[in-house]
Write a structure and sequence with these properties.
Elements lengths: L25 H12 L3 H15 L8 H16 L16 H40 L6 H23 L5 H8 L3 H14 L1 H19 L4 H21 L22
């Protein structure tokens, strides 16, 4: 790995990038994330806030990808033991095209899932109402409709989490290895599939913590964001070790990818 933590790695681009299995320990991941950034927590809080603010400005989230990539460059800098610099965040724009493409594809998947969800829920609601009015003159109980919509909302949240999981390592791979969008998504997909169950459970737990934090006027969620993003970085590092670490090599199996030169 290059001594500069936010420059592209060259050693791993000539050989298959190995990955390994992770464990389902969401609380431990959050503790490790906090220990990692606690000495510079306020700096990471400002970095994440700035990244989300700038990312929300561009249409279709085209600026969010480079900003998230820049956040991971800051985590790489922190991991290396070097002082984190705020301007490292903006080095994400050096990887603008691949990070933007990944963001747009994630957005497209979310839009498709939302459209399918709205269509299915709308059709189911009309069928329930039609069946009820055929058998009774009274409107359906409010409690029944509330329960159905609650279940549908939970299903939408779970679907969103599951849709995002294949992309979970894309921005980290782009940040550390300066990978194009296609290879980054392929590598992320295969590693995520290998760790599908633990990643799903960890992200469900993170989503639950985020929902609970959002109930208190969103302020706790703001302070929780750097830790949760740190969790995604640690998940990445536990899955893709740094060069030189001993790890089970999957290069001879279909769930490994040879990086482009």
């Amino acid at each position: 790995m290059s001594s500069n933590p936010y420059e592209a790695s060259t050693t791993l681009r000539q050989q298959p990038l190995p990955y390994r299995s992770i464990e389902v320990t969401p609380i431990e991941y959050m503790q490790r994330s906090y220990r990692m950034i606690k000495e510079q927590y306020l700096l990471f809080l400002g970095i994440v806030f700035c990244a989300l603010l700038i990312g929300a400005v561009g249409p279709f989230g085209i600026l969010l990808g480079p900003m998230i990539t820049g956040v991971y460059l800051c985590f790489l800098q922190c991991e290396s033991g070097n002082p984190v610099k705020f301007d490292t965040l903006f080095r994400g724009f050096e990887r603008f095209i691949p990070s933007m493409l990944v963001t747009l594809i994630v957005l497209l998947c979310n839009v498709l899932i939302s459209l399918i969800f709205i269509t299915v829920v709308g059709a189911a609601t009309l069928l329930i109402l039609a069946y009820h009015f055929d058998t009774s003159q009274e409107p359906p109980p409010v409690a029944l409709l509330a329960a159905l919509f609650s279940l549908a909302y939970v299903f939408l949240l779970l679907s969103t989490v599951i849709i995002f999981i294949p992309f979970t390592f894309c921005f980290q791979l782009i940040a550390e290895h300066d990978m194009p969008a296609g290879p980054a998504m392929q590598t992320s997909f295969r590693a995520a599939w290998h760790n599908l169950l633990p990643l799903t459970l960890v992200y469900i737990c993170l989503s639950f913590f985020g929902i609970v934090a959002a109930l208190f006027c969103y302020l706790p969620l703001f302070f929780l964001a750097p830790i949760q993003i740190g969790v995604t970085f640690i998940l990445y590092r536990d899955t893709f070790p740094k060069a030189g670490e001993r790890v089970t090599d999957f290069s001879g199996m279909p769930n490994a990818l040879t990086l482009p030169t």
